[in-house]
Amino acid sequence: MSPVSRTILAILGATSLGLALCAALVFGGLDRLSLRTAEANVDFLSTQLRETIEANVSLGLPLADIRLTQDLIERVKLADPQVLAVEVFSPDGVSLFNTDRGSIGERIASAWQLAIRYRLVGDRWRVEELDNIVVGQPIRNDFGEPVGYLALTLSDDARDLHAEAVLAGLAERAAFVVPAVLVVVLLVAIFIFRLAGREFARLAQGLAPQPATAAAGAEAGSAGNARAAMDRAVLDFRQAAADVLRLDESEDRDAA
Fold first, then answer.
1. Would the pTM count as exceeding 0.85?
2. Does 82 or 147 have the greater pLDDT score?
3. Fewer beta carbons within 10 angstroms: which end of the chain, N or C?
């Protein structure tokens, strides 16, 4: 494999890695955005439900006597398939209303009580258990005292399904984008290397020595010219010598 081919393959490999990194960043961004959207939707549902219950509590009714709460939590569960269960329980941890009616009157899990006690962000608390997520917030009276708590159990599978959908959509688009980008990079690389190769070829041709035959012909021509010059010089010398001799003979005759 020629050096040019290896260089082009290296460029294509680097381009593929760059595209894979971009796809990973896009997937991560979309996954975080979808998670925030889902949490915002659940937060909206729980806030609306809590405010409705608190409006009835403000009328002076005990939380356990507000029978409308059972209908409200069942509507919330039906409104969002991600919500597996909705529960309202008393401050001492006894379930008052639950979409799973068989759990009414039972005590909540100890993990929930710890999350309520050691919550870090505002009034909201969160627990992850059995591949599910439980989020909740307190129900307060007009004096700001908690008279109960609201808890929504969410399916963690919904996030996985959404991630798979995002990944499938991203892969479908990458199947068209990646080959097109690689073809463009390949054509540009070939064009650049061909252009550079022409310049190097011209430079090499200018620096290359002349062929041996041409050099020999040039040397032979130079030798012939030198010989002819020498012959002309010898003839000139002989002619000059003859002229000198004739001049001497003429002087001797004049003297006699």
1. no
2. 147
3. C
